[in-house]
């Protein structure tokens, strides 16, 4: 669909699908989209509630499938690099071991505390591991991209997030 003929709903869909514009950055849009995912993690940690964080991962998954599929149809492309909502939805899963390991009295730590002192390694390691597995797509992850209707767009990122979360959990176990 031509950009001038898009509805307001299509433009909003593309705005979210493209990570508030980060997916339109010509170099490494997935990396910039993943960086934007820290905003989603911040929102999920605001309540301090583990169940809210987990619900955000699940809701984020399904919203990313729906928005991603709609954006693909609007653009007339399958899996374009500018769609980064899949990275935004996936990073909170990759970061989940850090969230669990730093709970205090059943309450999640505020996002800002992960960026202080030695704790800064946790968001940085989650980011690097997630980007590595998302780009490398090992263990058959690449084939999952062939699933139609937005599912493949998101499933490969969630599989990468599971591998990244595993790596982060191993780091946390070694560090302990």
Mean pLDDT: 95
Task: State the shape.
Answer: globular
Order of helices and strands: HHHHHHH
Unreliable residue stretches: none
User: Count the helices. How many?
Assistant: 7
Instruction: Give the structural class.
Output: mainly alpha
The largest sheet is: none
The tally of beta strands, per DSSP, is 0
Whole-angstrom Rg? 16 Å
Distance between the termini: 53 Å
Helix content: 55-70%
Please report which band the strand proportion falls in: under 5%, 5-15%, 15-25%, 25-35%, 35-45% or over 45%: under 5%
Secondary-structure blueprint of this entry?
Layout: H1 8-17, H2 29-45, H3 50-75, H4 85-101, H5 121-136, H6 141-144, H7 151-175
Helix pairs in contact: 1-3, 2-4, 3-4, 3-7, 4-5, 4-7, 5-7
Structural features, described:
This protein is mainly alpha-helical. Helices cover 65% and strands 0% of the residues. It has seven helices and no strands. The protein is globular, with a radius of gyration of 16 Å. The termini are far apart. The model has no long low-confidence stretch (mean pLDDT 95).
Short description:
By secondary structure, this protein is mainly alpha-helical.
Sum up the structure in keywords.
single chain, 176 residues, mainly alpha, globular
